[in-house]
Amino acid sequence: MATILDKYRERRSVIRSQISENSLPPEGLLEMQELNYRICVLETFQGFCKAAPITMDTQVMGYHFQLVDAYVRFILTERKFGPKTDAEGKKKQETALTSFEGIVRDGRKRFSSFAASTQEQYKSCISQYINTILPIWIQYRNTYNNIKF
């Protein structure tokens, strides 16, 4: 089964073909930049999961979490643009952001006093955290630029 990342890559490939054929309508450019952004974010989080340390060393885990957390803070604040929206659309954006911020806040709280009981526990927990925030992030992004398949 294709992942959302695979679907984004496939859609980007279609858009690239349209560009090379000079057949991409101007409104497709917004979708193109959004797909490029989402692919970059998803690949970065994929890297964080794969490179998560297998250790019980709190300094090593702490450093890795600082990197993940910094990246999460960036995606909370960046790229807040898309087609013009009405008051209802703005309310959806605010609600999605509030939900996203709540998930992030809960994760920070959980990892602020994290102590692994096994070598693999941190890697498992950070992957779980990332896999929890990504669907919420995608919903949030869809309030700005809805990517449909």
State the distance separating the first and last CA atoms. Answer: 14 Å
Fraction in beta strands: under 5%
Task: Report the biggest beta sheet as strand number plus sense, adding barrel if it closes.
Answer: none
C-alpha geometry: globular
Helix content: over 70%
Q: Uncertain segments of ≥5 residues (pLDDT<50)?
A: none
Order of helices and strands: HHHHH
Please report the total strand number as a whole number. 0
Q: SS-based structural class?
A: mainly alpha
Number of helices: 5
Key words describing this protein structure:
single chain, 149 residues, 72% helix, mainly alpha, 5 helices
Describe the model:
This protein has 149 residues and is mainly alpha-helical. It is 72% helix and 0% strand. Helix 4 packs antiparallel against helix 5. The chain is globular, with a radius of gyration of 18 Å. The mean pLDDT is 95.
